[in-house]
Amino acid sequence: MSSGSFTIPGSFFFFLGNTGKSMNITNYSVVSEFVFLGLSNSRPMQHFLLSCSTILYISIVLGNLLVVFIVIFDLHLHSPMYLLLANLSFIDLCFSTLTVPKMISDLYSGQNTISFQGCVIQIFMLHVLGGSEMVLLIAMAFDRYVAICKPLHYLTIMSPWMCIWLLVGAWIIGVIHSVAQLAFVVHLHFCGPNEIDSFYCDLPWFIKLSCTDTFKMEFVVTANSGLISMGTFFLLIFSYIFILVTVWKHSSNDLSKALSTLSARVTVVVLFFGPSIFIYVWPFPTVPVDKFLAVSDFLVTPILNPAIYTLRNKDMKMAMRRLSSQLLSLRKI
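The chain above was modelled as a monomer; its predicted structure follows.
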């Protein structure tokens, strides 16, 4: 590819594809696409990864859609806890869909390219969904705190309007977080290097391809996401510990039940935040580990969420039985 430069304009609408009025081309060629180096150069390994990722992605789609479908159509699950859970499944489904189908296509065709605009849009949406899920997990922790520690006031505190505001707030904060991240890179120039040693676009790799000195920018961007991830992670862990201590003080008999409930949520939190903290905070990045953690984030966690929240939840299992019986009765008609 010939050398060139690409300037990202100050207007955020460029990130959504309005490139006609915002390109600033001087005497250089435009970097129009990036090349993913993927997970492996070995063709047999690529075939293996293709099979595994396809199976896992189908499971992600079916599992998370099942959770959303059951919560919407089962009146017994129209409560704050399950409303938040359905939104978590929806975000996980979108999060995985944003990267995995592209990865599957690349493994199948061997054409591992993405347009410049597509890369920026992918970064934007990843941080919208990631920021929204962080806030949603905090909302779910707050819901469990009220349900366990203040059961008599649960319906008053977690009213339908409170749930709506929590969900709207989660998406608004996700958008603000993503815009704030991209605001740091609006003036970057790209003049040649266009290989990303991964299977998707994210800010750490995107910034490194810039032709300008980006040390300070890398530090600010990674510190931003890293501190937000670590802060949210420790806040959630502290809240779960506080709930357990409160339950233990009031009734040690209920401690095992609360521990069983919260252990599943701690598992989800660790799986979600672990890769993000490592990628953004660890000062000595290692590509194989980053790739493994990324695969875990996009393919493993979105499967475990519906499995943990459905197979370990008595109400969800009863709802699935009711749904199965209704479908069987329809087939007999």
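The first helix runs from residue 43 to 73.
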